[in-house]
């Protein structure tokens, strides 16, 4: 039964993750007093891109073509590993949290290599920024998950999150709250959202993630955009599990609750993007350090 | 009259071209340098066309303390000692002179073309750039084709990591040859050239052009026309400032103000459309007066809509200035210190944001501004915040101005029949466009036809200010700094 629901979660995640982007865009439009694009616009965009061909620069190598595929594959592996709320992930084994972090790390590594492969000054700058910020974001993610692991005395993501739900002791709640805050910061940074990056800007000089994929087109770009949606789903699922550990006991109801939570995260991201400007790039590390401090505090609290 | 002092005229006062003294080159350089060091501005420096031998260099010096303009000239051969080392404000003008006339300013520190004239010395975009060398130095080239729908211009950054050490701006991709087309006489096309010098400053440029033409023909537009011109100019200022504030908000990713200002700018443009049928004010200002009159119903309509604009703009813009994350992006970004702004001859809004109280409406008042005080809005910090905040201050001043004068328009005709220009005269006409000081210089031949016409858009003075603002800044802040100046490419390239 649980396995069926877990499979259902993977299917839902793969099917609905572009919708997350659509929800964020609509929330932002609402705050700006606009009607905004259709909720399903990201799907239309993907369909459009899939029909297009791609142009490859003569300076690029196979790395440039491989990166979008690796990116999408990595995001899909992550969605298989990640638990949604109280539901276990489809795959669960001790230490899968490290696998999760490094699968995501591999996709980033490939994106960065592909950006450098183009030899463009813009993409080089974007790659440098991406690496600098992920250097700070990755430890926050690992420390956060470690804090939860210590709390629940397990090393498998699914067990950790199930433990959180089963818990209820005051100590767990405090750790989970700090971890949720840290994870929100990581989510904003890793998914190129305001205040770290601006997914809508056309200004190459200010971009981080977007500038690295400027030279991709057609199916490759579709892979990247779809992969970005799936990645946002993964981080949202991690955040929901830590922020709102409530479950009904009925697997299908838990699934519905979890999916609702993921979309609630999308709304929160939309609200954050509407209420504040982007940080100056030199200030982004400060924000990530705040996330790190929260994660360390959570870990210490859990170890106490 | 001593021939070693400039002839002093009021703003848009025509004089016989023989009255402009031809000084020796040394004396010319001395006068210009001393005047500029003493607080005057170099509004224009040009070689008079058509080519005559020896070529004649003309300077227009705007002296804000006394409110008059000094005209002086000197004859030069193939070269002359450059003014730039002693008067940095001349550096862009001298590059233009070298490109257009072949007269070489000897000792100019960075002499290269600023435009790409067909058959000129340089092919489009092919030139050397200032370069830094070093292990960690990298060069970033942006443009001339940009990601957004903006005009073409090339930006070359010398960076160390994310820090910009030097920015060189190369323009000229929009060169149309307007000044050359103007010479030879008043064709019906002239008005269209002048209205589109910089498409967003139609009223500002037309005011300078029409005042120059009127001065050359000893005409004086009716008082009602002067008032309507001023109102149109302030509407233009409001619309552009609103658009820029929204665009600056957009550059830092602050969406509510961006979206609302985009809409409110449209409302402001529509007020200009109510006046003359065109959102950018084309056809409003014509030689001899204005093209369209207003009646009481239209006055009411404009004032009512202006109230709505003020209310909406206050909501959107004060929200932006109340948001800490926006302020942290604006404050301290792209600083141009007051002294630097003065030395490189910045004008208008950008100079006022650095603390220079320069405003043609105040210093060399023309038209309706002669009869009313227009407060000069300045701010001291010289950063992006200052350039945003001065815009907001000016929007409010302009709204007050329109409210005050819309109800008390002078009666009488709105237009006077244009008369032919007189021969052998010269005039320098200044007006304050929304970006800053606009200077038009016109010279007629013996028959009263235009022998030379020169346009200096405020962008011409300020592009170098943008390059200076980027020194030691983060390269990721360039779009914000660029937007905070929002200079015109086509107004520069002409």
Which labels suit this protein?
heterodimer; A: 304 residues; mainly alpha; 72% helix; B: 494 residues; alpha+beta; Beta Polymerase, domain 2; Cytochrome-c3 Hydrogenase, chain B; five-stranded mixed beta sheet; four-stranded antiparallel beta sheet; 17 strands; globular
What would you say about this model in short?
The complex is a heterodimer of chains A (304) and B (494). By secondary structure, chain A is an all-alpha fold.
Mean pLDDT of chain A: 91
Count of distinct structural domains of chain A: 1
Number of domains of chain B: 2
Rg of chain B: 22 Å
Query: Runs of chain B with pLDDT <50, length 5+?
Result: none
Order of helices and strands of chain A: HHHHHHHHHHH
Average pLDDT reading of chain B: 90
- Could you tell me how far the N terminus lies from the C terminus of chain B, measured between alpha carbons in angstroms? 37 Å
Show unreliable segments of chain A: none
Please tell me how large the radius of gyration of chain A is. 19 Å
CATH H-level superfamily title of the largest domain in chain B: Cytochrome-c3 Hydrogenase, chain B
Largest interface: A-B, 32 and 32 residues
Structural class of chain A: mainly alpha
Number of H/I helices of chain B: 16
The geometry of chain B reads as globular
Number of continuous helical runs of chain A: 11
Q: Bin the helical content of chain B.
A: 25-40%
Q: What percentage of amino acids of chain B are in beta strands?
A: 15-25%
